[in-house]
Amino acid sequence: MLRRPKPTDSEADLLREQELFLNSGASSKVNVVRRPDKRRGEAFSILSRRVLFAADLPDQLPTLTPAPPKKSRFKANSVRFEEEDPEERLDRQDTHISAVLSRIIERDTSSTPVSLPPFTGTAFPKVLRLSEADGQVQTWHWPSAASGPWLVSGQGLGGPDSPAETMRIHRENEAKLQAMSESEIREEQKKLLSQLDPRLVEFVRSRKAQSVPPSTTPSKYPEDKRDQEECLPKNVDNESDSSSAAGLHQKPLEVEMEGELPVKPQKEWVHMDKLEPEKLEWTRDLPAPRRKGTKKAMQARFDFAGTLIPPTEDLPTHLGLHHHGEEPELAGYSLQELFLLSRSQVIQQRSLALSTIASVLAKARAGEYTSVLRGNMTSTLLDAGLLFLLRFALDDSVEGVMSAAVHALRALLVSPEDEECMDSTFSWFRGLASFPLLPSSQEEEDEDNEGLEENMKETVKEKEERKTDYDVARLDVVKGLLKMKLLPRLRYILEVVRPAPRVVQDILEVLTRIARHSSSSATQVLDCPRLMETVMSEFLPTSWTMQSLPLPQSVYGLPLASAMKLLRVIATSGRHACARLLNSLGARERLSRLLSVEPSELLLEPAEALRITTEAYRLWAVAAGYGQACNLYMSFSIVCTVQSGRLGPEITASLPGLASAGWRDRPNLAALHSPFPLLIGLGLLMDTLTGIHKGLSSKVGLLEQLKSFLEVPHEPKVAKHTSLYHQVALVLLPWLLPSSEYLAHELLSTIVFSKEFISEGHSGGPEAIELSELKLYEDTHHHTAPSFQTVGALLREACVQLPSIRGCFLTHLAHLEASVLVSRDAYLGRNPWINSQLLPELTGPTLPSDWPFLPLVSLYERMGVSNGGGLQVEELPQGALQAVTHCLQWLLLLEVWREDALKVVLPVAKLARLSCVFLCSSDLFLERPVQKLSWGLLRLLTRPSRLDSLDLDVPPPGLASFQDLYSALLAQYEAVSFGDRLFGCWVLLPLQRRYSSTLRLAVFGEHVGMLRSLGVTLEQLPVPLERFTSPPEDSLPLLRLYFRSLVTGTLKRCWCPVLYVVALSHLNTFIFSQDAAAQVMQPVHYR
């Protein structure tokens, strides 16, 4: 008899046992199964066990030849990017046991009951067998032996006699159950339940309750025994097996379901012999839609056109808007459901979901959801991964899905109102130039380069390459798409797929939006292999045939206006790009072909012919702006017929726009029938003619009529409006954007600081101010401030110093010299020196709104104030006193005669900027010119109308809060004030009762020592005392400080008269007020 191998057997023993086995001729108990190769068409076969003897081995090793490579049928279905790291892919697809074990989480067993085995006299506790836990109540009927076992299947028993062994075990279990009493069964059942997980037992009971319908007959067992019966095997009387019992339980439910179904199942229907209640629930009628609680936000649902469906609207089911979701009674699809359907295996579902997302995006960009939905719809979709969803959908092999993805991408990127608005302003002066649509720059923490030398730090390009697609797309949508290889995919669609006309138009508009992003993006569009060649050959041909249908089935081989617009936008990005289009790609020939004939002779639909002719002229204008294609007019006769546009309010940080929403709905200069573009073009033409030769001005009668308006100061009828021109120039300055530095320089040099445009300076203006001050003195009978000179005298001196003031401001704007030169070339039409029609990045206006304070703020930034309040540079630079004097003179002039020009600056910002006089140096405010001008400005800022508008709770621009600035002022006053009355009035101004008590707490708490030198008298105070004493103080900590300073002698009338009177007034009001007495009943502890 053969024996099984043992671990102690040697190799010789194994070989000997093998020979005995082979000689005996017995059949093998193990079969070797080789899986068939389906690719070779092999059938499934069973190979006999092969035995290898040492004598069969060859003497020499066979030569190793490489096996033919195997073709994987799964490799073609997987998509991999070239930059994908193989190591990351292996880690993601690793199915090793370590990958499974690493995700094992230990279960919390602190609340699980533990039952210890009972103590017995044996060495080991008795093993609990499942057959011993199954009991039988004497009144219950157990299945007979003929019906077979319920729990023991015999699957683990081997051998030919396993069924007989299974029946033997079943009879043994049945005999043990028959011998047990009911109490013993209950005890064993409780013991078994205590060892099981309570949640598992509850789950089984709940499933049991769902599968078995409640019986209408009362139970014969008590209620406390019902839970125990569920864990025991059940049987029904007069039934032979369990299947018949299950049939009895299921029969009434099927009959009930058949009565409720809208369609009654027929016997001949396939697979309807057994009803499934859970699946057939969907065939019932939907309940009426109900509105949830109004306080809780509801999930937005949309129809296929992107329209928001109200939750109370009951729509018919034939519209296809009801589905098997979490809320089947509500029509429409949520964003989560649309995202899920866009990755469906059903082609129609993918296409429909992407089309619906495109409609939602289009309506969101138009602002239709702003008043009904919370948050920004576009930002929500981008945060949910919309960009990656669309990029993956573009790779779909089904053309319908790919077309829907292109349409959704166009709805995300392109704003039709933006394009329309920029097209309508193209004919304006400098209208062909446009700002790049770049997101606002966000500073990122550079932790990797901290502590490294400059030559070891990463460059900007290296940082961009190291970023993931998600990180790039989160900050810049267009740059993220370029990183995800969007351009090669669009080229493939245009060149190989050759889609429908709508998809072609969408792709061209997407390429135009990418080119508007920046000059680098436009260069990538131009450099993409075969992309622009396909556009030129397919959509801007030099010859084509007339189409018989107004809407052709294909636009391939026909010139398109959107393709010409793409060329124009790319040409705007730079001189080099424009030259490549004209010379290398054949744009010059296309211009000659399209502009040499009338639009009606282009063999195109009339509207399309007019649009493409317009775009051709615009491209020619851009090229001529660089001095290129200027001789193109020699090849044809010019017939110029130009006809020319709003961004939805939803703008995301990573996808900026022009914010031109609703521009067509209100009167504006960019309207379709506005004469503004024609007037600008005519003016430029006349300016060019007069620039060629002065004698040409007499040949044009219109120029003679405009001459009087151009020479404003020399014509008496026009000179009276010089103040108006000056005010317009002051208002225009803060509105000038980057690339308009030349205009700002010209305004500052010729108009803003010109005596001829400030007529008040030489027509009795200073004298009128002096008379008003005299009248004010007679009305008040006291001096409001110890001014050394009246404001009128200060204004007279400022008018004399206007040339020096102009030189001061131009010196502080010298850093804009390079930008001024570039802007001058563009505005003067010096085409050979223009490198790009794409304007600099829009980071703000050329000059800030508070530019009149520029010399003062620049000096403060140069000196620098440390955290302790001290100055980093003690000595003032050369010319600083003169610069501050000129700045204060200009501010005084504007406050008196051009008050409207400074309305854009908040009163708190004015106070903060003027505070730099005291923070720049330890003695600058003591200089006599600065003292006189500062007193004059303080008197203007403390007029009743100005005091009412001064709100110190609003943070000044550039500062976190006014309290931080005031703390620096208090520290500077304690250090260097020497009891100066001007500085004292400046410190007292924020201590008015209407402002925050935190400012007063800072004086009486942290800087109480300054009360000894704050000697401003009541007569010198420029603010009425009632603003400090009314209404009564309600801050108990501040009242305690008032009381402590008076009792300890820190605050005396001879040292600080103003605050002495203020503290005494508030304390008297508090002590003799009944309301205050009620508050004292609650003790307040001061630390």
Protein model, in words:
With 1087 residues, the chain is mainly α. Among the domains are: 301-413, no CATH class; 416-441 and 462-654, Leucine-rich Repeat Variant; 960-1086. Helices cover 48% and strands 1% of the residues. It contains 49 helices and two strands. The chain has a two-stranded antiparallel sheet with strand order 1-2. Residues 43-54, 130-141, 214-255, 641-648, 780-788 and 1080-1087 have low confidence and may be disordered. Residues 442-453 have a biased composition (Acidic residues).
Q: How many helical elements?
A: 49
Give Rg in angstroms. 45 Å
What CATH architecture of one domain would you give? Alpha Horseshoe
Name of the CATH first level of one domain: Mainly Alpha
SS strand fraction:
under 5%
- Give the CATH topology of one domain: Leucine-rich Repeat Variant
Pfam families: RPAP1_C (PF08620), RPAP1_N (PF08621), TPR_RPAP1 (PF25766)
Protein name: RNA polymerase II associated protein 1
GO biological process, one term: transcription by RNA polymerase II
InterPro entries: RPAP1/Rba50, RPAP1_C, RPAP1_N, TPR_RPAP1/MINIYO-like
Short description:
This protein has 1087 residues and is mainly α.
List the helices and strands and how they pair.
Layout: H1 11-24, E1 32-34, E2 45-47, H2 86-93, H3 97-101, H4 130-133, H5 162-179, H6 182-195, H7 198-211, H8 226-230, H9 242-260, H10 277-280, H11 335-341, H12 347-365, H13 377-383, H14 386-394, H15 399-413, H16 416-424, H17 460-466, H18 469-475, H19 477-483, H20 486-497, H21 501-517, H22 519-527, H23 531-539, H24 561-572, H25 575-583, H26 587-595, H27 606-625, H28 676-692, H29 701-710, H30 716-719, H31 722-732, H32 741-752, H33 765-780, H34 791-800, H35 802-812, H36 817-827, H37 854-863, H38 880-897, H39 907-914, H40 916-919, H41 928-941, H42 944-949, H43 962-976, H44 981-988, H45 997-1006, H46 1026-1029, H47 1036-1047, H48 1057-1071, H49 1074-1080
Antiparallel strand pairs: 1-2
